[in-house]
Amino acid sequence: DLKLDVKELYIKSKNLFYNYANFLIGRKYLKDKRGWYYKTSLDTLGIFNKNDLLLYELYFGKRLTTNNSSYDPNEIATNLKNAKFLFGHLSYEYYKDNTLEGFFIHEDNKNALKKLNWIGLRAQGEVFRKNFDKVSYWADIATVRGDYNQSSIRGLGFDFGGMYYFTNYLTGIGGSFAYGSGGGNLYVQPSFTNNRSNYLSKDLSFYYYGEFLQPELSNMMISSLYFLHHLNLYKNQTFIVALHNYIQDTASSTQYSATNKTVNPGGKNKDIGNEIDLILHYDLFTSSYWRFSLGYFMGGNAFNNQTDKKDGFNAQVYFKYLW
């Protein structure tokens, strides 16, 4: 099917009230720095400021058209048409490139059977060492309450991690630990993100919870290690190797995941498995964008007696030409 969509088309004020209260109306691509809460295009009315140290944003509205596309890896899996939302975001830069942030997210989405509120806190930034190496860190923690899938839920989710970048070698190593509660205290993520971001390297977006499994951070503990190397810092040639380990918080036969590549676990064992990913951004010629990804998933004991083939492999090539 041929479909025409618009990523951004809006009007906004400029220098209103000395930039302490500007207004915006229209289709806007909304993304927090890590894409952990929201990262999609929505039809909105917003008010925000542009203060260098203290920033606030308030957006509310709904998505007027469908957003599903099987061709765009940036797209959200959930149909957001008619989903109502309110995003509140407050950020304070307490030191250069280091911020403390607060979030409030409201989602009323009949397509996803969600009427939920999230309250979240974030600390993130980077510190340069005397030898010009760099340390970056992030810490997100959020609670959710409301109605999901005709049940009342309340849960906790967090994602803590960091990277050490060796400037002289254009290389970085790091890790993270993410948790979304399960059982009677279920945590679910907002429908406005797909856990794909470029926060490890600006030129390369990837599924930071796994290219193959792509799980939602719900009833899940995810331990990850990252290795990043810039083949050429000035020509957008970068690769990332990622290792992930998945363990359910509570053994369950329900897998809160965006992928349809695996069967549901048996519900008796928490060990979902491990995954190794290779993601490469290599622009072969000017005005083009090439992204290659390989994901190999090794199913764990949670799939025992469910299937004889617990492993899986996924390979993708994404190409974009700009003119």
Describe it for me?
- It is globular and about 65 Å long.
- The chain is an all-beta fold and 323 residues long.
- The protein has no helices and 17 strands.
- The strands form two sheets. The chain has a 15-stranded antiparallel β-sheet, with no helix packed on it. A two-stranded antiparallel sheet has the order 11-12.
- It has strands at residues 9-12, 22-31, 39-48, 54-62, 84-95, 98-109, 114-128, 134-148, 151-166, 171-180, 196-197, 206-207, 220-232, 237-247, 271-282, 288-299, 312-321.
Features:
0% helix, two-stranded antiparallel sheet, globular, mainly beta, 15-stranded antiparallel sheet, single chain, 17 strands, 323 residues
Concise summary:
Helices cover 0% and strands 54% of the residues. By secondary structure, the protein is mainly β. Strands 1-2-3-4-5-6-7-8-9-10-13-14-15-16-17 form a 15-stranded antiparallel β-sheet, with no helix packed on it.
Topology:
Blueprint: E1 9-12, E2 22-31, E3 39-48, E4 54-62, E5 84-95, E6 98-109, E7 114-128, E8 134-148, E9 151-166, E10 171-180, E11 196-197, E12 206-207, E13 220-232, E14 237-247, E15 271-282, E16 288-299, E17 312-321
Antiparallel strand pairs: 1-2, 2-3, 3-4, 4-5, 5-6, 6-7, 7-8, 8-9, 9-10, 10-13, 11-12, 13-14, 14-15, 15-16, 16-17
